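PROTEIN DESIGN WORKSHEET
SECTION A - STRUCTURE
LENGTH: 195
TOKENS:
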């Protein structure tokens, strides 16, 4: 359990420079260079991920169930997670309307994903993981908006209908795969069986 928690915290910290130590990040980038900074952050993220992946089942075994979700809440979670995936996909496809309008779709996607999972996972392990992730996403989004407010943009880019449509269809295909097989493969919980 301790190793998983340590990995989880390391993983979050590696993605939290803009939230907690923006000034330190700026100073270190000037001193060691952007490339070395990215390498260090990436290594920390990989270390955290490996610790989480190798100790997931051990940590999960210590979890205590506090509540079970109702069927309507399960379906609400499925819908929320579709929007989460749609937002995450939109972060990687240029000129789609979601990315241009929302500015930070990845952080919003993580926030939606964490909230959707909090609704249906009433055990202490899940509450810790998804609760901490949701808190991180809220703080990260606030920091990102603050940084964006200090940056001046010359003109707003025009969105592409094709890119926007591709974002939607890729998102829905990933969502359907996760419901049918992906979630069971990654987390060991079949969503179709759960309903």
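SECTION B - SEQUENCE
RESIDUE ASSIGNMENT:
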């Amino acid at each position: 359990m301790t190793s998983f928690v340590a990995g989880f915290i390391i993983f979050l910290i590696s993605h939290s420079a803009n939230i907690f130590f923006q000034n330190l990040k700026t100073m270190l980038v000037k001193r060691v260079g952007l490339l070395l900074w990215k390498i260090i952050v990436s290594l920390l993220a990989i270390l955290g991920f490996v610790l989480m992946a190798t100790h997931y089942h051990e940590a999960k075994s210590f979890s205590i169930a506090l509540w079970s979700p109702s069927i309507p809440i399960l379906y609400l979670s499925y819908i929320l997670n579709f929007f989460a995936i749609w937002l995450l996909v939109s972060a990687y496809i240029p000129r789609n309307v979601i990315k241009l309008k929302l500015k930070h779709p990845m952080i919003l996607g993580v926030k939606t994903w964490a909230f959707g999972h909090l609704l249906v996972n009433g055990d202490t392990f899940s509450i810790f993981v998804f609760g901490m992730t949701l808190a991180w996403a809220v703080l990260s989004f606030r920091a990102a908006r603050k940084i964006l407010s200090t940056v001046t943009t010359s003109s707003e880019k025009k969105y592409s209908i094709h890119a926007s449509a591709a974002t939607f269809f890729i998102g829905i295909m990933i969502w359907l795969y996760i419901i049918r097989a992906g979630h069971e493969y990654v987390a060991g919980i079949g969503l179709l069986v759960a309903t």
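SECTION C - NOTES
The first helix runs from residue 2 to 14.
Residues 77 and 117 are 7 Å apart (CA to CA).
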